[in-house]
Amino acid sequence: MRQAKYDVAIIGSGIAGMCAAALLVHAGYKVLVAEKLPQLGGRCSTIEYKGFKIPYVAQEKPIGEYGVEAAIFKEVGAEFDLVPHPPIIYRIRGKDYQVPEKGQLSFLLAQCCKDELELDRIRTALRRARTWEEPSSSITFRDWLLQFTENETVMGLLQNIMCALLMVRLYEVSAKEVIRFTKVGMTRWGHTGRPRRGNIGLIESLAKVIRGRGGEIWTRSPAKQILARDGVVQGIVVDKEGDEIEVTAKAVISNTGPKETVRLVGEQNLDRGYVKELKENLHHGSQMLISFASDRPLLEYPGGLGMVGARRVVNISCVTLTCPEVSPPGKYLHTAQCMPKSNFAPLDQKTEIEAAIEDLRENLPGFDRYAEVLNTSCFFNEDWPGYRNLAGYYPSQKTPIEHLYNVGDAVTPPGEANYSATSVRIVIEDLETRVKPGEAQQDFEDYPQGY
Question: Hey, what CATH class is 284-385 in?
Fold first, then answer.
């Protein structure tokens, strides 16, 4: 078996894996990124079809002081080419509302509540939960809300926000987790932008930095195994387009999700409690993204339309209105973020798509006449999910194997809404205290072939 030596091997080229690689090469580490697919980016990538740049998942990213990724791009010198996201319009009971810059939630609640008494009751409950004592984790957010209102329009509004940002329905997440998210993660998502050239534009900017500083990126190169000895990671085995290579490394970062990391390193090499906890508590979030084209905008709002009380559609955007680069001349790209009926019940893909299409027909005049569906991405299973973990369970970025880390949306800190890049900073800061640039080359220099 051929061998290669790196300071750090990274499995997967999603946004977290690529951010980690860029930070490491910027600090002088010799890095390899191994990606199993033909193109980079994982779920944060782009489908090129009929001249359109179609996202796998929604493209918005936090910007300015709220953007963890923005700060990483700036630090490593990668282009972070985003267009600020215009304000979203909300459709409530068939009427569209433009949200003010401040007091957005209060404004929207006021449109949903039956009277001032109900509005005051809900706002007071939310304020106390945020500033005095968080509610219990043993009650769902929906059941907690039912103590203050039975108004289904209010439920629908908060359902829309949770589906858009946490990928959960109100009865699938605890009240504590939602309140915790409103303190941290929701602040980030109030200030976002769209990639001018699609998600792949961001990934390519990072790839340019990684390669420019001596890092390597292998596509069509799945990791077959994570190597460990005496509880310490030793590297990975990669099938590089049919050529099996043993990559020795002082540290390994997995961007494939904790369950896949366990499979690659082998359950027998891990602490039993760690494996048991992952199996019992880690659950993926499901989502759909329907992308469709037309020769005219089917939606006049550049910031998109939030759908309160729809069957499946959470929001609709005409991406071309802010990023014309994603469409051929004279064409418009639209996306509909959709939430299936459940994260825990079996899902029928056809039924879920049909329900979402009905929402689009009802809310976009001329949909059947002018829209051409280009792609429907269904993230219904743990191998290719919307999120790799739902709010409420927060596994460590570290594994029981020394110098083996996870990054990505399964291992974000509490309150961060599965935001991938927040885990990267934690891992890199720890790794830099344990592994110095160039150590791998020196330490593995005298190992015999095929050890």
Answer: alpha beta
